[in-house]
UniProtKB/TrEMBL annotation:
Stored InterPro entries: MBL_Glyoxalase_II (IPR051453), Metallo-B-lactamas (IPR001279), RibonucZ/Hydroxyglut_hydro (IPR036866)
Phylogenetic lineage: Bacteria, Fusobacteriati, Fusobacteriota, Fusobacteriia, Fusobacteriales
Domain Metallo-beta-lactamase: 12-188
Native source species: Fusobacterium necrogenes
Domain of life, per lineage: Bacteria
Cofactor field: Zn(2+)
Keywords linked to the UniProt accession: Hydrolase, Metal-binding, Zinc
Protein name: Hydroxyacylglutathione hydrolase
UniProt keyword annotation of Zinc present: yes
PANTHER family: HYDROXYACYLGLUTATHIONE HYDROLASE GLOC
Amino acid sequence: MNIQTFYLGSLMTHCYLVWNENREAYLFDCGGENIGRVETFLKTHELTLKYMVLTHGHGDHIGGLNRIKEIFPDVTVYIGKEEEKFLTEPELNLMRYMNGKDFIYDGDYITIKEGDMVGEFEVLDTPGHTIGSKCFYNVKEKMLISGDTMFKRSFGRYDLPTSDGEMLFNSLRKLCTLPEDTKVYSGHSEPTTIGEERAFLTMQGMI
């Protein structure tokens, strides 16, 4: 599979366009409405955006949803069952604190849970940063989309609505059981590997 990073929204969230040999594309998170580069890339490379996949419901990861559905009406949106309210409740998605505007998604979507498959990616429940945070693992490619759960030499905040520190560290322990050469693509850091982060978290006494 191929992967291209786009930095979207006011927080320059790392959003990932991934596509397979059939030219079917996944967009993991959409941090803002400045998605013109994504649209251009898809057209230039003759890709079909089939999956719009959300790691969690914070505004810097869902802020471009309405624009995505406007441009690509046939794309299917996926979000964790526990995160549904984030799509329509500004108090949870926190967009007003990021750019001064409330965000409400008015389109359709499918909810997902542990063990579901979104195309070639397995859904992993990784609560902590939010109650319904999800990671997405492609076993064949040894690729993990980690959202705001695991960063390079760091991890997501757990002082926000629905966050829980104990749950977050349990989720990090869970991710650290994946093969050490698994490549990790997070929402706000450069790529890393499970092996590197397992070593870091162990050294810090966090797992």
